[in-house]
Amino acid sequence: MPGGVPGGCGDDGCVTVSVVWAREPIPSGPSVFLAGPTPRSEAVASWRPQAIRALDAAWKAPQTLHVLAPENPGGLRELEYDDQIEWEWEGLERASAVLFWIPRDLRTLPGFTTNVEFGFVARSARTVLGCPPDCPNPERNRYLIRLARRLGTPVTETLAETAAAAVEIVAAIDIAR
Q1: How far apart, in whole angstroms, are the C-alpha atoms of residue 62 and residue 108?
Q2: pLDDT in tens, 145-162
Q3: What angle, rounded to 10 degrees, do the helices at 112-121 and 81-94 form?
């Protein structure tokens, strides 16, 4: 998927979602940052390809939606830590919306950095929090869910709902401009 994923075509023309992988230049325009735990092993599947497909299905605007994915195209995180975190911080700050998907599994997808990132952007009004109730450790998401609700951040339970909420945020911010 490097370089982008074409969207669907219909009566209104073609819609495009472009994937921007970790450490690639972040373009201007409507964007969603995919925040959440990253696999540390090839044995663990990334949730981000499914999120990209869900965003592609939800995105109906004529502009290209840039999806900022903090992984390499192969799915694993880069070993160069400093470059990776600088890119992630820039993406979190510049994204039109920040989609958090936290399928918490303390063994394989603990999401400890994700907790910090959520606190970093939780008050921004650009954030949606998705926490599947059937993940291995849903009890470890309770604090984030409670904080999100206190701040008025949308809280969802499926990746499709989370993507749709992120697209609504982007539409309210970028399309209205």
Answers
A1: 38
A2: 999 999 999 999 999 999
A3: 30
Taking alpha carbons only, the member of 28, 22, 24 closest to residue 96 is: 28
Instruction: Tell me whether residue 144 is in a domain.
Output: yes
pLDDT in tens, 32-90: 999 999 998 889 999 999 999 999 999 999 999 999 999 987 655 556 788 889 999 99
Full residue range of the structural domain in which residue 16 is found: 5-36+47-73+83-175
Please count the CA atoms within 13 angstroms of the CA of 82 that sit on its side-chain side. 0
* Residue 41 forms part of a structural domain: no
Beta strands at 65-69 and 97-101: parallel, antiparallel or unpaired:
unpaired
| CA R_g for the chain | 15
Nearest to 48 by CA among 159, 151, 125: 159
**Cα distances (angstroms) measured from residue 56 to each of 59, 61, 64, 83, 150:** 5, 11, 10, 28, 30
Residue 175 CA, chain-centre distance (Å), reads 19
CATH at residue 135: 3.40.50.450
What's the total number of domains in the chain? 1
Measuring CA to CA, which residue among 106, 151, 107, 109 is closest to residue 128? 151
Residue 57 host element (H or E): helix 48-58
